[in-house]
Amino acid sequence: MTYQDARTPGLQDGILHHLTYTIGKDAAHATLHDWRLALSFAVRDRIVDSWFASTRASYEAGAKRVYYLSMEFLIGRLLGDALVNLRLDGEAKAAVEGLGLDFDAVLHDEPDAALGNGGLGRLAACFLESLSTLACPAMGYGIRYEHGLFRQSFDNGRQVEAPETWLQQRHVWEFERPEAAYSIGFGGHVAEQDGRMVWTPAEAVLAEAYDTPVVGWEARWTNTLRLWAARAIDPLDLARFNHGDHVGAAVPEMLARAISRVLYPDDTTEAGKELRLKQEYFFTAASLHDILRRFDSEHGDIRLLPEKVAIQLNDTHPAIAGPELVRLLHDTRGLPFDEAVDIARRTLNYTNHTLLPEALEKWPVPLMARLLPRHMMLIERIDADHAARFPARATHAVADGEVNMGALSFIMANRVNGVSALHTGLMKQTVFADLHALHPGRIVNQTNGVTPRRWLHACNPRLAGIITGTIGEGWIGDLERLAELEPHLGDAGLQQAIAGAKRANKADLADWIGATHGLSVDPDAMFDVQIKRIHEYKRQHLNILEAVALWQAIRANPDAGWTPRIKIFAGKAAPGYVFAKKIIRLVNDVAAVLNADPVTSRYLKVIFLPNYNVTLAERLIPAADLSEQISTAGKEASGTGNMKFALNGALTVGTLDGANVEIRDHVGAENFFLFGMTAEEVVARRAVEGHAGQAIAADPRLAAALAAIHDGAVSPGDPTRYHDITGNLRGPDYFLVCSDFADYWRAQREVDAAYRDAAHWTRMAALNTARSGWFSSDRTIRGYMAEIWGAASLGPRA
Ligand code: 26Q
């Protein structure tokens, strides 16, 4: 079934039409790039009808709209996703091959849109897809960064960053909307005029909209992702130009464009950066103006706002939405202050994604007051009024000369949610304990999810085909139906097919690794994968320490029947995070030594794949046997990679952290390799004086692995290279790598033994797939709709 009617020509005609009339090339001279653009335009044509129909249906229903405000949308490539959701993938492959082209090569020509750092940005992208699949009238708002997350390469094992340039190619999915543009002010002063406060900004930039349609499964519904680009209001300073200053005349344009030039590459706060605060206000203000303009065009009475609009703040990055909305309602529209605050608070909701103290956003009061003077006044008043109503506790948003954006978001939100059960519980007990006591019921949990269209159906066609062959294709739009697989898992043919699909995915990956990185890997070895941002709390160094210990054990006893393993790492470190970059170098150095060892490399190889992104994840996850989810308990808010692996039939070795807890509950403890301290035990352990030293003294393996690294076994020309890492682990070891090492080693040896029983392993892997249906982002979005937004589906089937 394809979405084609009498007016739409066949896809091949569409491709040729766009090649000629949009790209301006004839087939004889077209490059792969031209063909990819032509196919994308032809596919985009098919989305537009669904898009218009959705927009019409939203207006006609007068339904509540959901707005998802996020600094990051890590969307990756869009062509394959669009084809799958339009159910055009088969026709497209035939059409492209009919033109004599390699379909995969065409798909792989698309740049990976990396407008995000990691989990938070990818979650936003999965949510947009699910919002469309569920026919929830919604819109995503963000920034159209010219440069997304940097490209990573290695120079002698060290991370090197280069600018990412996705927009240097034509971005075929977007529609420029010059008519939707708003002036966004900064600085200046505030004065009272006729009893109202009036903010006169010192400077202003233009926010210009670019819309990308987001098509849901089977094109049931299509929402919009609206990204804002910054422009100067006057593109040229004519006075300067006329005085002969031709370069200076372009400076205002350069300064304005700087706001949407580049994504901040840190996934923990880099505090105090003025440009970052400007980015936050820029996109939040533009989005709120747009939301109110749309509201006004549909409804008369602004008091209806909370009934007709739900705004979700993706972390505190858009937290300035609170004061900005109050400013628009009170200063601009003249509502009484208390009513303005009440309306704003009933419209806004806030998702918290981290409890790490360094990632909780705080802005110096003087910076806020200089850049957004009226907002600073409003923040003080909102905070004072809140404190006056709840005098007993210290829950201020403004304290110690800083604005605490988490507290501000909490005070200004109808609902505040965590992203896994454990994380939500910890929010109540730790950072938001006092605010939670004042507002019990405000904090709710919505455990994260991932879209099964991209993360199983599209990225793992072999497994998806087997599932569909067994239970039909209903699972793609209703992932909990994967449970229907379970009664079939005793079938030897099905087991063989599942094992065969994994083996073929691994062979593909092995070929790719050989061709692109020159390392030969045996597809029958266990593929052990840790892919995520590099962070001490995620403990890539625990994984590599175990690799060194295993290497030593194999060397000491090469014929002990070791289970062959390939340890695969990928992930970027924030450019300023020195320790994380050192971990990358360590992994690369360990890889060089181990892979060159003729005795041990039959059993253990290590590779760090550069430039991790959504596309690489789509290649690795279907080929993984083992998923490393080994963060210090209490630190990973949820994780979403963990869900993608389980869904694709990888077993997890993991701690009781984030959504790991819920994954284990769903797939069964016997199908999950648990190790390590609980969040509570972590807190207690940290209080033990000399915990790392004790753990090292008790575990000769750990001591030897640390000593090898310390003594330069993997950095022979430079023996002190890793003294910062070994010093940290032997000393403070805040993330308790040493204290969890012995149990991690134990769990890994259980993994080895389990992998040797291939039939049993396949059964456990298949059970992971069959029992992961709950981790669909469709389930998550249904939860937000019912418990946070009060929004209804407008679709026939959702
Ligand atoms: C803030 C201020 C200044 C500069 C950067 C930042 C910043 C940017 C990105 C702070 C945090 C982030 C990203 C956080 C993030 O990705 N958190 C992850 O969110 C996922 C989705 O909920 C969870 O699954 C992960 O556990 C969590 O780490």
Which tags fit this structure?
2 domains, 9-stranded mixed β-sheet, 47% helix, Rossmann fold, 6-stranded parallel β-sheet, globular, 32 helices, alpha/beta, 798 residues
Question: What would you say this structure looks like, in words?
Answer:
One of its GO terms (cellular component) is cytoplasm. It catalyses: [(1->4)-alpha-D-glucosyl](n) + phosphate = [(1->4)-alpha-D-glucosyl](n-1) + alpha-D-glucose 1-phosphate. With 798 residues, the chain is an alpha/beta fold. The chain has two domains: 62-77 and 112-446, Rossmann fold (3-Layer(aba) Sandwich); 453-772, Rossmann fold, CATH 3.40.50.2000. It is 47% helix and 16% strand. The chain has 32 helices and 24 strands. The strands form six sheets. It has a nine-stranded mixed β-sheet with strand order 7-10-11-4-1-12-13-17-18, sandwiched between helices. The protein is globular. The model is unreliable at 1-7 (pLDDT under 50). Residues 117-120, 123, 264, 266-270, 276, 353-354, 359, 361, 419, 448, 636-640, 658 line the site of ligand 26Q.
The CATH homologous superfamily name of the largest domain equals Glycogen Phosphorylase B
Low-confidence stretches: 1-7
Overall pLDDT: 96
Distance between the termini: 19 Å
- Provide a count of the helices: 32
Beta-strand segment tally: 24
Shape: globular
**Fraction in beta strands:** 15-25%
Q: Bound compounds, please?
A: ligand 26Q
Total domain count: 2
* Helix-strand category: alpha/beta
State the major sheet. 9 strands, mixed
Task: Write down the CATH class of the largest domain.
Answer: Alpha Beta
Family: Belongs to the glycogen phosphorylase family.
Catalytic activity: [(1->4)-alpha-D-glucosyl](n) + phosphate = [(1->4)-alpha-D-glucosyl](n-1) + alpha-D-glucose 1-phosphate
Main location: cytoplasm
GO cellular component, one term: cytoplasm
